[in-house]
Write a structure and sequence with these properties.
300 residues; alpha/beta; Rossmann fold; 2 domains; 10-stranded mixed β-sheet; two-stranded antiparallel ribbon; 12 strands; 18% strand
Length: 300
């Protein structure tokens, strides 16, 4: 019987999201493919430094115990196979020996392979690939490579923070806000407080993380947070939606338009997902962050 990843949380990640390849990428962006490949070949035995999503990946993989492999991380990259060798060697050098699968497309679109992987999350520094993955229905975010690294205060706890509208939930309410303003938005949400919001692009990831949390691990814990610009009375519909999904988050921050970055600094997530570029930029000054190009705030 063929191996499958059906029973695992599957994270697909690009080389630049996992490791710091910004110097090499500048060579690549100069349209000199041969120089880029040559540079990677010269550095085969030089482990790349951890990138923005490294902490998230390392902690998720720590859920795997002998006899219970619940998380799979697969490299999914526009890199060439030679560069792929360096990525795998960097994984081994940094203790990520369990990262053993990868697809390297040498400049071609890699997101088509998400279906074969059954991915619950795709992290990439390439905005076009992220938008295409979201269009296909996969939770995906563009990693801000300028983000600060994750903190080290919670070595045995994976911490993930999510925005609400257009991320966990659909952008139905956000559309009202954009068209008619704050008062109309609050009235709309008050009127529909008992009606769950439609699913957003990251609901499948939250559900998969919930299953991982329920499975339990003696070594690792998972802590999630909803960090939203909503405030009372619009908070009720968000909470009711989570109750309807039978999924709990550990913390909820209803900030009513306050800057999210300082609050995320205190929560110290391994990663934060938001659809608003301003919120993501604020977050990136304090924590690893990714932009979810979804909803009315991100017209195609």
């Amino acid at each position: 019987m063929a191996l499958t990843l059906d029973d695992k949380l599957v994270v697909a990640i690009s080389s630049r999201a996992l490791f710091d390849f910004e110097e090499e990428n500048r060579v690549f962006e100069q349209d000199d493919d041969r120089a880029y490949v040559q540079l990677q070949r010269q550095r085969l035995d030089q482990p790349a430094r951890p990138g923005v999503a490294f902490s998230l990946v390392k902690k998720l993989l720590a859920f795997n115990q002998e006899g219970q492999q619940c998380v799979e991380v697969v490299l999914l990259s526009r890199n060439d196979p030679v560069s792929g060798m360096r990525v795998f060697r960097s994984c081994r050098a940094h203790g990520l020996e369990s990262v053993q699968r990868g697809v390297f497309t040498q400049g071609r679109d890699p997101f088509h392979y998400l279906r074969a992987l059954g991915a619950h999350l795709f992290l990439s520094a390439n905005g076009a690939d992220v938008r295409a993955a979201l269009h296909l229905g996969y939770p995906a975010a563009r990693v801000l490579t300028e983000s600060v690294q994750a903190g080290s205060a919670y070595p045995h706890e994976v911490r993930i923070a999510f925005d609400g509208d257009a991320v966990l939930f659909s952008d139905e309410a956000e559309q009202v806000y954009q068209r008619e303003g704050l008062a109309a938005f609050q009235q709309h949400e008050r009127d529909k407080a008992a009606q769950p919001l439609p699913d957003g692009p990251f609901k499948p990831l939250l559900a998969a993380l919930h299953r991982l949390q329920q499975a339990g691990s003696g070594a690792m814990r998972l802590r999630t947070a909803l960090v939203t610009a909503r405030s009372a009375p619009a908070h009720e519909r968000a909470i009711q939606t989570l109750l309807n999904w039978n999924i709990a988050v550990d913390e909820a921050m209803f900030l009513g338009g306050l800057e999210k970055g300082p609050f995320l600094r205190e929560f110290e997530p391994d990663f934060f997902f938001d659809d608003q570029t301003g919120h993501v930029a604020s977050a990136a000054r304090h924590v690893p962050a990714g932009h979810v190009s979804s909803g009315v705030a991100n017209p195609a």
